[in-house]
User: Fold this.
Amino acid sequence: MPRRLDLAIDSRAELVGLIGAALRGLCAEAGLSAEAAGDVELAVCEAVTNVIKHGHGDRPGHVVRVEAVVAEGLEVTVVDDGAALDPARLAAADPARPFDPADIAALPESGFGLGLIKALMDEAAYSSAAGENRLRLLKRRAAPA
Amino acid sequence: MNIDLTESGGGLVLALRDKRLDAAAAPAFRERVAAAAEGGHRLLVLDLQHVEFVDSSGLGAIVSALKRLGPGRDLAIAGARPAVRKLFQLTRMDRVFALHDDVAAALAGGAG
Assistant:
């Protein structure tokens, strides 16, 4: 019997924190370290925020689902019916965007989300079919020392 | 967005009292910091010791605040928790912002 919990919020940025709070509990349940739990919270909140901002254009009234399975760590799938992401963007994403730290005026203010998701999780896979988008994220439990 | 402002010898300290600086909080944060920046202080210190979570929208708002200050003025970070530090490191923004352990170090060390 898989240990699975399904969460759902309306597509509003102010509700994403609820997902984060629930994930912290799930990460403890999955035996993840405090650092790993922070990684999961940030990655999933970035993913859900992306869906709200880009998938639904910041319009409320759409359901964003988060399916969490406690297994070899924590597996989290963000499910939405908004505009799909170009998978090439996830493949190319890097949280360390190129910039000159001395050129303040040209510093990037956005575009970090997908790169962070990849860097923070052990696996990130995106699929889109029949109007449903699924971003599956996995954080493995560290092997005992 | 609750922010306490404190004048200190070396600059203006902005202490965030909310636990999250995320996409929902970023617009109000931008407004509050822009208003605080009009005071003309050379150094602004963002005290993040109470902040448990910052996402890329929050980081973008911090970068935006630095840009608004313009040449000759700076924004330093104090008290960032490990997860927040990690966000700065992964995005390489730790090369732009000095990350100080606490407010006193930020005021003493200036922009780093």
Q: What stands out?
A: The interface with chain A takes residues 20, 22-24, 53, 55-57, 59-61, 63-64, 66-67, 71, 82-83, 86-87, 90-92, 95-96 of chain B (CB under 8 Å). The CA atoms of residues 29 and 35 of chain B lie 10 Å apart.
